[in-house]
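Predict structure. Chain length: 117.
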Amino acid sequence: MTKYIKEYERIIKERLGKRVSPEKLSEWIDYHKNQITHLQDERIIHLLITLNFGICFLLAVLAYLILQQFILIVLGCLFFVLLVPYIFHYYFLENTTQRWYGYEKKLYDKKSALKKN
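Prediction complete.
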């Protein structure tokens, strides 16, 4: 996913620097909005997964505090080890989504400037 995002951002930056017709720009805007929708879907899935791992981690800790079984510490550590990368990946997806909203605004601004000319 990270490779795809970086490649797409390279393409969108390249497109922002080109002179094109308003029709072509409208196509790019539609495509970009579609890409944002896909990214939002990915983001919500990762949010749900992250929340589930967080809840499982907290339940393992709570269960350890109640039952005092060593295996629950191991289970909690496993959930924590999985939770941390998901938090970082979700953070990456969230920041990417915000950045892509900015690209969308730039595309619309470029379209408005073309219509004025």
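Summary: The CA atoms of residues 58 and 76 lie 8 Å apart.
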